[in-house]
């Protein structure tokens, strides 16, 4: 066998020059990509940094023309707990938690059913749900409000109504999870069925342990959607403080110029507290989130 030195010596000067040119162009391209990503990250982080700094400003409560506070303190965070913010935060957490649990169960069961079972009207059902999901939810807001009002699930009792609406259409979000389940060999199901396992046991003991990325992806998406919802939550709570979530409650502090002058720094502090749990959760599970998205996009 020829040594590497011998191979390198046998290369012509033109080949070496071409190789060095490709390496240099690749280095330049990677450098430009990294610079672009750094610039995008800085632009994306500027609003969050601004809100964080303003939440520690205590010399005034209204909007000012500078970013770095002249006086630092935790007064805005202390004052949050003298308002209805803890109630709004609890409402949001309850809605997000229950929606996360029920929606994850429904989505995974629906995805497994459509991936593994073959029955009449299956493809038509899948297409119908996909097309129906393309219509904006705002088209049904009026009738949903009337139904929830008749059930007593609006205003002060808006949280159960929100959970009911969030969970009701969960099955239509099957497509990403189904695509991931399609990548798991069906021979595993057949082997487990031969050993006497039921369909439920196959799902919970075999499929789900192999589908950790898509399970975590489903949990994250199911939790984050109600956590940041504003439009429907505002509509259902109907400006009743006991039924508001944090998005609706915080926006109420900056509706008018007078309210902004009084609550602006508290609004920033509330925004920081709302963002912390989701940020930590997403950063810890980001690896599985990306794997779930890419894995579920392989097959439809």
Provide a compact summary of the structure.
It is built from 15 helices and no strands. The protein has 300 residues and is an all-alpha fold. The N terminus and C terminus are likely disordered.
Which secondary structure elements does this structure contain, and how are they paired or packed?
Elements: H1 4-10, H2 13-55, H3 75-80, H4 85-116, H5 122-132, H6 141-150, H7 158-168, H8 175-181, H9 186-194, H10 199-207, H11 212-227, H12 231-237, H13 246-251, H14 257-284, H15 286-296
Structural commentary:
The protein is mainly α. It contains 15 helices and no strands. The protein has helices at about 5-10, 15-55, 75-80, 85-115, 120-130, 140-150, 160-170, 175-180, 185-195, 200-205, 210-225, 230-235, 245-250, 255-285, 285-295. Helix 4 (about 85-115) packs across helix 8, helix 8 (about 175-180) packs across helix 15 and helix 9 (about 185-195) packs across helix 10. The chain folds into 2 domains: about 1-55, no CATH class; about 80-295, MetI-like fold (Orthogonal Bundle). It is flat, with a radius of gyration of 26 Å.
């Amino acid at each position: 066998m020829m040594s590497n030195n011998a191979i390198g010596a046998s290369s012509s000067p033109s080949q070496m020059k071409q190789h060095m040119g490709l390496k240099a162009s690749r280095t330049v391209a990677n450098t430009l990509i990294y610079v672009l990503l750094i610039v995008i990250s800085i632009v994306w982080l500027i609003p969050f940094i601004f809100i964080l700094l303003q939440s520690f400003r205590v010399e005034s409560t209204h909007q000012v023309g500078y970013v770095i506070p002249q006086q630092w303190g935790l007064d805005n965070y202390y004052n949050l707990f003298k308002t209805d913010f803890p109630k709004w935060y609890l409402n949001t957490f309850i809605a997000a938690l229950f929606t996360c649990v029920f929606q994850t169960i429904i989505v995974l069961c629906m995805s497994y059913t459509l991936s593994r079972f073959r029955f009449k009207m299956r493809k038509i059902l899948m297409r119908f749900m996909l097309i129906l999901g393309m219509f904006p939810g705002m088209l049904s807001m009026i009738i949903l409000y009337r139904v929830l009002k008749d059930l007593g699930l609006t205003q002060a009792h808006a949280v159960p109504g929100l959970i009911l609406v969030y969970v009701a259409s969960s099955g239509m979000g099957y497509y990403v999870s189904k695509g991931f389940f399609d990548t798991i060999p069906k021979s595993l199901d057949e082997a487990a069925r031969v050993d006497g396992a039921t369909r439920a046991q196959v799902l919970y003991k075999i499929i789900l342990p192999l589908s950790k990325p898509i399970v975590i992806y489903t949990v994250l998406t199911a939790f984050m959607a109600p956590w940041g919802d504003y439009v429907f939550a505002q509509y259902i709570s109907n400006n009743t403080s006991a039924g508001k979530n944090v998005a609706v409650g915080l926006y109420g502090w900056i509706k008018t110029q007078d309210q902004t002058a009084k609550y602006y720094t508290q609004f920033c502090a509330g925004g920081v507290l709302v963002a912390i749990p989701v940020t930590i959760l997403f950063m810890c599970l980001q690896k599985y989130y990306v794997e779930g998205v890419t894995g579920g996009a392989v097959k439809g």
